[in-house]
Design goal:
Alpha-Beta Plaits, four-stranded antiparallel β-sheet, alpha+beta, five-stranded antiparallel β-sheet
Length: about 700
C-alpha cells in the first residue's frame, strides 16, 4: 500500500509551538483522509525548528465507491417540499428519482446517489491547501509582496517550501501536485541552513531521513533530546562534574537546533557566592544553558555550564563557548547586584514607619523593610479583596488561630505569616518570579529568623500541584493553610468561583492543597469554623476531596456513603472511607451490607406507603427468638460503635458492627416483617430502623454498591 510523505518547511518555528503544531498537522491530515473515505495503517509526526513532517504509512490508493439511498417526501407532497428534496439530493427533476411504496404511508420518492471513489492522490491535492491555510497557529504572520493582498497566506513564520510525495515502496513515488499562495508542492527539501544549504531531492520517508541526517538535520525531536542529554552528561563527567537535569529546558533546547552540538562554557568562581537557584535561573532564562555541580553535591554548583549550539564550528566551538560565557558573566553580574541590593537598607526606609508599626516589623532588618514597603505601596491583591498588606494581616490572624490546632507556636506562625509575601518586593524575585518563597527563606535565615519561620516562608505556597510535597513543619502547615483558606474564603465571598474548565485564581488547586495538608499530616480541622466559610464552600471541598480519594483508589460509592453535607472534618471522612473499604472487603462486611440494604429497602418501601413504624422497639412484642437476638446485638453494636467513633477508631467501629451479621441474616430468614398484626409489624419495622441507625453512625449503607 502507498505511503505519504509531507513536509512544511519555514523559517524558525518557536520551540514552545513545535510539538503541538506537529500533532495538529497529523490530526488535520488524517482526519481529512478518513473523511474522504481513505484508511491508513500508521501516521507519525516529526518536527525541527524549521520543518513539520508527517509520515503516513499504508494509505489506501483509492476510496471506495459509495451508493446512498436518501428517502424523500410522499409523491403527494406539496411541490415546494418535493423541489426542496430534489435540490438537497442534487437531482434536477423527479424523473431522476425513484418511487418506492410503504404499505402504511403510500408512495414516496427516493434519491439514489452514487459517489465514485477517488484516487488518494487527488484527495491529498484537494485537502492540503485548506490544511495549510487553516492551520491553528496561536500567532501567525504575512510576509512578502503578497502580504498586501486580502486573503494571503498566514503562517507562524514565512513558509518556504512544501514537500509531498506519494506511492508504494515498490514503485517510484509521485509528487502530489498542489499550490498554496504561490508555493507549489514538490520533492525537494533543504538541510542545515549553514552546513548544507543546497537542495535535496527525496523519494520517500526513509531516504528523506537519511539525506537530512547527511545534511546535518536530526529530524526526530526525541533523538535530538537524547543526543543533547547524553553529550551534556559525558562532557560534565569528563570535567569531574555532573549535569543538573532539567527536562523543561531539554525540551526547549531540542526545539532550537537541528544539529545539536554540545559545548561547555565557564564563569568566574566568585559568582558562586550567590544562591544556586539564582545562578541556574539566570543562565537558563537568558542563555538556555544547563548548569553543573560537583559530583555528589545536591546544592552547590560548579562554575561550568553546558550550552547547545546549532553549528559544528571549525575551532571546536571555542569562540561560541567564549561568547556565551561573556553573556553569562554579564547576566550574573546583574544577579549579584540584585542579591546585594536585597540585603541592603531601602532608600525609602524612613517612609515605612507606619506600616512597620502596623505589622510589628523591625526596620533594621531588610526583609521586614520589604514587607513594610509592600504594605506602604498599597499593592492591590484583588480589586474586591483589598491590598496585599490587608491580605497579609488576615493571614497572620488566621495562622495564629490555626497554630495551636496543628501544634505550632502562635508567635512563630504569626512571624512567618507576616514575612511570607515580603520577598515580592525583592529585586531577585522581581527578575525571577518563580523564586518567590525560596528567596524569602534565604533572606530570612540571613537576618536571623528561626529555621521554622524561614521554612514556612518558602513552604506556605506548597503544594503547588499533585506531585508537589506538602509542608510538614507545624509552622509551615499553619501558614500554608491560612494562605489557602484566606484565598478560598475571599473569592467565595465575592462570588468568583471556578466555572467549568475556568479557574483563573487556581481555587481548585488551593482546595486540594488544603485537603492534602490536612490528610497527609493527620490534622483534625473543622473547616467551617477555621475558614469562617459557608455550606457552598464546604460542598466545593467535598467535590475536591472526592477527586483526591478517587485518585488514591477509593471507591466513589464509599465516599458518597461517608460524606454528609455538614461534615467539615476531612481527615475524619478519609479515615472512615479507608476503614469502610477494608470492612467491606471481608465476608462479614459483604453479608452485613446485604442485610442492611435489605432492611433499608423494606423501610423505604413501607415509609413511602405510609405504614406505621413504632417510635421505639418494644421487646414485649417479640414472638421469635431471632427478634430478641437482633435487638440485643443492635444495642451492643450501637453502644460499641459510638464509643469507637468517639475515639476516632473506625476499625473498631467496623468490628463492632460486624456482630450484626449473623443476627441480621437469622432475622430475615426466620421472621416475617409484615406481620398481619399491625403492632407486631410496626415493632419489627422499628427494629429495622435501629439497624439503619446503628450502621448510619459510620456510613449511609444505602449508597454503597453491591
Amino acid at each position: 500500500m502507498p505511503d505519504l510523505l509531507l513536509e512544511l518547511r519555514s523559517e524558525e518555528i518557536p520551540a514552545r509551538m513545535q510539538r503541538k503544531a506537529a500533532g495538529d498537522l497529523k490530526k488535520m491530515v488524517t482526519d481529512g483522509l478518513v473523511g474522504a473515505g481513505l484508511t491508513y495503517e500508521a501516521a507519525t509526526e516529526y518536527w525541527t525548528p524549521r520543518r513539520l513532517t508527517l509520515d503516513v504509512r499504508g494509505l489506501t490508493a483509492r476510496s471506495k465507491d459509495v451508493r446512498e439511498e436518501r428517502k424523500g417526501p410522499s409523491t403527494k407532497a406539496p411541490e415546494q417540499a418535493i423541489q426542496g428534496f430534489l435540490r438537497s439530493a442534487g437531482l434536477s427533476s423527479v424523473d431522476e428519482a425513484q418511487v418506492q411504496s410503504d404499505p402504511k404511508k403510500g408512495d414516496f420518492y427516493v434519491a439514489v446517489i452514487s459517489k465514485p471513489g477517488r484516487d488518494a492522490q487527488d484527495v491529498i491535492a484537494d485537502l492540503m491547501p485548506s490544511v495549510v491555510r487553516d492551520f491553528p497557529w496561536p500567532k501567525s504572520m504575512r510576509w512578502g509582496a503578497a502580504s498586501a493582498q486580502p486573503g494571503s497566506l498566514r503562517w507562524v513564520r514565512p513558509l518556504q517550501s512544501i514537500l509531498c510525495t506519494f506511492g508504494p515502496e515498490t514503485e517510484e513515488p509521485v509528487v502530489v501536485d498542489f499550490e498554496v499562495d504561490g508555493i507549489r508542492a514538490g520533492n525537494v527539501t533543504y538541510g542545515h541552513r549553514f552546513h548544507a544549504p543546497d537542495a535535496i531531492v527525496v523519494r520517500r520517508f526513509d531516504d528523506y531521513v537519511a539525506k537530512l541526517e547527511a545534511a546535518k538535520v536530526v529530524l526526530d525531536a526525541e533523538r535530538r533530546k537524547s543526543i543533547i542529554q547524553d553529550d551534556a552528561r559525558n562532557l560534565a563527567f569528563a570535567s569531574g562534574l555532573e549535569l543538573v537535569e532539567d527536562d523543561g529546558l531539554l525540551e526547549e533546547v531540542s526545539g532550537l537546533v537541528e544539529w545539536p552540538v554540545v559545548l561547555m562554557g565557564e564563569f568566574e568562581e566568585a559568582f558562586l557566592g550567590i544562591p544556586p537557584e539564582v545562578i541556574r535561573l539566570t543562565i537558563r532564562a537568558n542563555q538556555k544553558c544547563f548548569v553543573t555541580r560537583p559530583r555528589g553535591e545536591d546544592e552547590r554548583l560548579a562554575n561550568r555550564f553546558i550550552l547547545t549550539s546549532n553549528i559544528e564550528a571549525k575551532d571546536g566551538g571555542k569562540e561560541i563557548a567564549y561568547g556565551n560565557g561573556k553573556v553569562v558573566r554579564a547576566r550574573l553580574s546583574d544577579a549579584v547586584h540584585f542579591w546585594k541590593t536585597d540585603q541592603a537598607d531601602l532608600p525609602d526606609r524612613d517612609t515605612l514607619v507606619e506600616s512597620a508599626t502596623r505589622f510589628a516589623l523591625d526596620l533594621a532588618k531588610p526583609l521586614d523593610q520589604r514587607m513594610a514597603r509592600l504594605d506602604h505601596l498599597g499593592v492591590t491583591f484583588h480589586a474586591k479583596l483589598g491590598t496585599q498588606g490587608e491580605r497579609v494581616a488576615r493571614i497572620v490572624a488566621l495562622a495564629r488561630e490555626l497554630a495551636p490546632i496543628v501544634g505550632a507556636d502562635p508567635d512563630e506562625a504569626a512571624r512567618a505569616a507576616v514575612l511570607a509575601k515580603a520577598d515580592l518586593q525583592t529585586e531577585v524575585v522581581g527578575e525571577f518570579p518563580e523564586l518567590q518563597g525560596a528567596m524569602g527563606r534565604k533572606y530570612a535565615l540571613i537576618q536571623g529568623e528561626t529555621a521554622s519561620v524561614a521554612a514556612a516562608i518558602e513552604e506556605h505556597y506548597r503544594p503547588q500541584g499533585p506531585s508537589d510535597v506538602v509542608p510538614t513543619d507545624p509552622v509551615s502547615i499553619a501558614v500554608a493553610l491560612a494562605d489557602k483558606l484566606d484565598t478560598l474564603v475571599g473569592f467565595w465571598a465575592i462570588d468568583e468561583k471556578p466555572t467549568g474548565s475556568k479557574d483563573p485564581y487556581a481555587l481548585r488547586r488551593a482546595a486540594l492543597g488544603v485537603i492534602r495538608i490536612v490528610i497527609e499530616n493527620g490534622v483534625r480541622l473543622k473547616l467551617l469554623s477555621a475558614a469562617n466559610g459557608g455550606a457552598d464552600l464546604l460542598s466545593f471541598f467535598h467535590d475536591r476531596l472526592k477527586v483526591y480519594l478517587r485518585d488514591k483508589g477509593a471507591r466513589h460509592d464509599l465516599i458518597d456513603a461517608v460524606i454528609s453535607p455538614e461534615e467539615d472534618d476531612l481527615l475524619l471522612v478519609t479515615s472512615r472511607v479507608a476503614a469502610l473499604g477494608i470492612f467491606l472487603d471481608s465476608e462479614d462486611g459483604q453479608n452485613l451490607l446485604a442485610g442492611t440494604k435489605r432492611a433499608a429497602n423494606i423501610l423505604a418501601a413501607e415509609e413511602k406507603k405510609g405504614t406505621a413504624i413504632a417510635d421505639a422497639v418494644d421487646p414485649a412484642l417479640f414472638a421469635e427468638a431471632a427478634e430478641t437476638a437482633l435487638y440485643d446485638a443492635v444495642n451492643q453494636a450501637e453502644m460499641e460503635t459510638a464509643e469507637a467513633i468517639q475515639k476516632q477508631d473506625f476499625s473498631a467501629a467496623m468490628l463492632a458492627l460486624s456482630v450484626l451479621r449473623e443476627p441480621v441474616d437469622s432475622f430475615f430468614e426466620k421472621v416475617l416483617v409484615n406481620d398481619p398484626d399491625a403492632r407486631v409489624r410496626a415493632n419489627r419495622l422499628a427494629l429495622l430502623a435501629r439497624i439503619r441507625s446503628a450502621t448510619g453512625q459510620v456510613a449511609d449503607f444505602s449508597k454503597i454498591a453491591g
